[in-house]
Amino acid sequence: TGEDCIAESEADIDVLLEMGFGKCTLSVQGPRGEHLKAGCLAGRRIVTSYPKLAQKFFAALEEPGKPTQIKCISGSVEAAIGLGLADGIVDLVETGTTMREAGLEEVAV
Q1: Overall domain count for the chain
Q2: Residue 29 phi, psi (nearest 5)
Q3: Hey, is 59 helix, strand or coil?
Q4: Residue 45: helix, strand or coil by DSSP?
Q5: How many angstroms separate the most distant Cα atoms in the chain?
Q6: Are strands 69-72 and 88-93 parallel, antiparallel or unpaired?
Q7: Measuring CA to CA, which residue among 72, 51, 69 is closest to residue 4?
Q8: For the ATP phosphoribosyltransferase catalytic domain, which residue ranges apply (predicted)?
Q9: How far apart are CA 109 and CA 107, in angstroms?
Q10: Residue-range definition of the domain harbouring residue 24
């Protein structure tokens, strides 16, 4: 993590040097095999460690009067769908192994 934490904090910083490591992407994920689009998760239950970034993403997709219910947790975010706590998640992905093992697939990056 790094750029994701800065974006979530909304800090105004100047990047002096890109370090060239840390190849994670922040992605919207849903249950594998449902072939969801990001808009299908707008207005539903989303769990993430990045609530501000998730809210910004889903705000443009929401229908009037149907806000996305975003809950912030730390730890194993990918377990939230299997536990029935969420319909989708927003989480960091590097290789995708943990995502696939949890039965999830990327819906948007």
Answers
A1: 1
A2: -130, 150
A3: helix
A4: strand
A5: 43
A6: unpaired
A7: 51
A8: 1-108
A9: 7
A10: 3-108
CATH number reported for the structural domain that contains residue 102 in this entry: 3.40.190.10
For 108, the token pair is 């948007």
Question: DSSP letters along 2-31, please?
Answer: -HHHHHHHT---------S----EEEEEEE
Element (H, E) at 38: helix 38-41
pLDDT tens-place values along the chain, 109 residues long: 576 666 666 778 777 777 776 778 899 999 998 877 888 999 999 999 999 999 999 999 999 999 999 999 988 999 999 999 999 999 999 889 899 999 999 998 8
Global pTM value: 0.84
Show the tokens assigned to 51. 């609530």
